[in-house]
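Two records follow; treat each independently.
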Amino acid sequence: ITDADIAATLVSEIGMIKGTLQYMSPEQARGDVAAIDVRSDVYALGVILYEMLTGRRPYNVSRAALAEAVRVICEETPEPVGKSWSGVRRLDQDLETIVGKTLEKDADRRYDSAAALREDVERYLGSQPILAHPPSAVYQLKKMVQRNRLGAAFAATVLGLLVVLAATMTVQAGRIARERDRAENEAAKAQAVNRFMRETLSAASPFEQGIEVTVAEALDQATVRISESFTEQPGVEAEVRHTIGDTYNALGRYDEAEPLLETALEMRTELAGPDSPESIETMASLAQLAWRQADHDLAIARGEELLEARRRVYGDPSSDVAVTLDFLGRVLIEAGRYEEAEKVVQEAFDMSLEVHGEQSVQTAGCYQNMSVLEETWRQDYVKAEELTRKEIGIRRAVQGGDTMESAGALNNLGIYIMLQGRLEDAAEIIEEANAAVRRLAGDRHPELAKGLENLGNVHFRLGNYDKTLALLAEVIEMRREVLGDDSPQVARGLTNLGAVYRVSGRLDLAEETLRDAVVRMERAYGPEHTDVASVHRTLGLVLWKLGRLDDAETELRTAFTIAEAAFPAGSLGIAGYQNYLGRLLVERREFSEAEPLMIECYDAHLDAYGAAHERTVVAAAGVVELYEAWGRPDQAARYRVE
């Protein structure tokens, strides 16, 4: 196996509890895949409606360990929306009943579809008896009066307002003004929520998209109407924009998420300042969005800004700071800034242990980053596997069933096992991980694309080139559809496609694909990133095989220069680049320049694997070829392996 094989993708997320957890139904939180259906979407809508009415979520699990958060969602009863309601007037009983029915823990007790929920909302708005309310003569009479005696109701309302006004006139003027503003805000908020409910649920109309639509499809339509739905309600509008943006982020719909989150941050900062919990929440979502989009410079900048804010507000040590350090460490790894990453990852690990202990999802996330650093920087695949098995053990103990995080950890484990040459085992583990991602996120998600790319890597190493090409074609198509043609992940898929073309002998296709990939990679990451070096190296090997040695040397020297700046001297990270450039120089009979490259490559493998390892033997053979071609048989004999 050569160092120019197609690249593995480490897919797992950092250990951050995301806002979307708070919108999960009990069956989703338990990982009960068989029980998840449209009623789970109804539950998510119920959480949103509760939040719009009360200004907070039914459960506050944003800082809870995942196991505790799941227990709360599955077992604890949320405070009735009427008690959480802060308006001056009492919340209508029917509205409280509607929201309560959407949040039933037993899915059979919820509305059975978004259309059924919409019907009850329309009944409520039209003063009709709602279907969720137990029928009674008094209730039916009350609704009849509401429908047919609007004049009396209006008069009663006016009288009530006059009484309230007379009483409040005796109160301090400042308090009157505050209460008046609060009453107006709450009334406007209730109206905005009602409008939002109608717009969101209208997607379920059988005259539109059909009855069984998903929350995302309904929110697509609601997003268009956010501004007009929350006129002069910036706090409510910001919350809705953040919530929908976070949901789009989790669904891999990044282009839709970004403008919503950016506007939400602007509004929240203007309303409450940059250090408010709401502003910090949206800052975190934007940082993660940049990471998911593989915009490393932006993700690092946002991560550092988030870290400063959380340190100011929450202090050291704290869970919020530890999670942010973990995130920043991961992005630094992916950006190829390994020395910086190592310090940040270690700080995150130490703080997570102090705050949460070993058996926590936060510490599991730190183990993941440490394993990625071992694989990417030091290429110690055995150590990476050991750390990932620790991570998986913690996640299974704490989280239980399938999650995106546990699926990602399995995928990483498959990569490390593949890199050690246990290919059949690796394929089985990666396929298990991909099946979990399909169950959790569907068939068109960026995380699934990464897993399929890794499975293609295994088949590539097994020599199943047609299977690899089919998988990579699916990956590239999926990424173009979901992430857009300019995504760095598309460039990565093209890089791997070019590598397969090279090894399978389709050199013209390989050159064309790799030249496209290198332009895209440089545009995405800049000219000094290690992924860019990898593309230059593979392109150099293609040109070498085509007999264009000058062009090949240019590409291999470019790759080596990038790697030399990124990896520690004497490390395996740089050894592969030394190997190929050295071998080409031997062919060109430039022995004195090739010699230190080949010797350093051999020494790196000897230190890492020992003399008997296959990779060390291959490196030794390269040194033997150098000295034999140079006419120095005595020196060649020192490296010859019997």
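The next record belongs to a different protein.
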Amino acid sequence: MPILRHHSLQKTSLQLHPLARALQTTGSSLLLATALASPSVFAQTSQPQASGQEAATGTQLKTVVVEAKADEGSADAGYRTETVSGLGAWEGRSLQDTPYSVNVFSEELIENLQATTPDQVYRVNPTTQLIRAQHENNQPRIMIRGFSVQRSYRDGVPDDQYNHSATMEDTARIEILNGLSGFLYGANNVGGVTNYVTKRSTDERLNQITLSSLGGESWYTHGDFGGKFDADGKYGYRVNLVEQGGDGAIKNQEVEKTFYSLAFDGNLTENFWMQIHAMDYTYDVNGSQTYWYFGNGVKRPSADSIDNEISWGQPWTNRWYDYNRYGTNLKWQISERVSLRGAYIDNRGTRGSESTSNTIQSNGTYSQQISGVYTPGLNTLLSEQEDKGGALYLDVVFETGSVAHKLTTGYQTNESDQYRMGGASAAPVNLTNLPMSSPSYIPRPTNIAPVNRGELKLSSHNEYSTLMVGDDITFNEQWSALLGAAQTTVKQGTTYDESALTPSVSVLFKPVETLTTYISFIEALEPGGIASDEFNGVPVVNKGEVFEPLISEQFEVGAKTKLGAVALDAALFRIEKGLQYYDVTNPTAPRFVQDGLQVHQGIELTAIGNLTENLNLIGGFTLLDPTVEEQKQTPALEGKAPADVAEKIVKARLEYSPSSIPNLSFSAAANYNGSSYGDLMNTDKVPDYTLFDIGARYQLAVGETLVTLRADLSNLTNEHYWNGFNGTRIGDPRTLMVSATAEF
């Protein structure tokens, strides 16, 4: 009979048998459960010795307490983790003793959220504002500390530049760093970094199959297989296979997905571990949701006036993506004091897009523009991209008197190329006077005039490299510091080649073992923006213009502690960043500019862990004060809040497991997203909204197979709300996800 993972083992008093002594050493909950289920194992010490027989039978062992510790990140542990895989140059510190705001989401939590996309994780993380769901453009986008975060990382190395290959099925954990990370990850997003850690082989054989309904008629199958090749457990594998299809909770929108991943890892020598991994991924969205804009004099209507359960685009429009990724990770303990670690990623993708945008008119109708429609049968390829990145770090441990050091030197590099068709684009299809009562659909046009699209040509080439050195210093049990400096270089094609030296300084103080306080300062170099072809559906007058790099800086004061089995983290921060935006003084001729300063200051509080033996919590809040300062080109912007930034985010997810019904859990979550602005002048207010989710999970044994049943209902009240860039999207409707996972 399989042992159900959900059931927590209780503290038990028993006399210490040699097997129990081994259990105490290893902390293996599985072995302990087996031992506790077999009282005869302890029979030789459980009976009192008869008078006069003690010398012949041996001394009676003392009664001790053996306590099984829940696995890190498990539901039994309240999904709380003690470690982080690594933060760029730094590795080896516990999460509590890391002087940055970091949230870690474990593999078991990902499974229990039924997170087939990153969206479900972002929904429960109290420091992220989800502004683009994955199904919109296969490009999940978030705001952290009020800044847009696009690019994701895998195993500490940049993945693809537009985040089109953010895959969950091969991910063991997601680590989200809030704020600047120049010394840690080089030139990147100012708001923060999302790092996906690749799954490794399992110590025990894993055969797991999940069948799901993701809402509506959408179906999803996922096979996850792992284990070791040899009896010594040195070499192993991990395989993930996925198929998805069918209309989801939004009618006339279908997501088709195929995903394969394969990873091999092993200890090539006693001190050298290596992993090689690869994936192939296709993602198609048919009938994707549209962007909403507003004609002259039209104020944003209530989201309640627009049906959120049906696609307002054309059902035949298609966005398709085809990506593959190859990578390797290594760790080499060269000697007791010297170690080497590194990672490499090669990501390549192609994509095509047909999209729609709707504009609400003053007469109560809407118009629609359909872009990317070509002659039937013509290749709809839009672009190709190639991303390569790597990182290598050398760690040396030594002492100077009573002060301990871990000196790290490293090099990071990343290169991104994008290719676009060099010829003409298809003329858009325009529809007018469409009623707002329901979507208007037309057949796919067959009379599209052919255009010469030309050949793929290199449209952008970016190179980022960082050489860093850092020292992790421990003065005593209370005081420590992290000091580092990075020389970062940014190359944008032939436009510029700029470098900057950026520091990172953190000082930590632990007044008691369970409390860590810190103060940090960090600078970061980021690439300048590139003017896009269009803004709000209107051609940009300086499209393609590349702007100079920017240096941003962040001050942060934080505290991390544990109250019982709950980890509490708090951070006060201030970020100063150069402002880049589209000047729409002339709405018919938007211009991308780099001018002024964006200052975001705020506070974050997060909590994760077990409130009681039967109740766990993931929650917290973010309060922001974002302001535009030092504006020269458009002085009227000074004092305004940047567009899209929610000033308040409050989230809480509770999971309850009643003692009377083992292996059953209930969950409830609330997600409050404060109001923001859809324009720079703060005249278009995007209302706040609150989403409620509920769920349940039950495990049972069917023969030798462990079966987990899950059901989650998101947006319980079917709240209608605006989100997305400039508030141009209608949020997702009420969605029921159910799944059954068999593990054998």
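Discussion point: Residues 1-68 have pLDDT under 50 and may be disordered. How would you locate this feature using only the token line?
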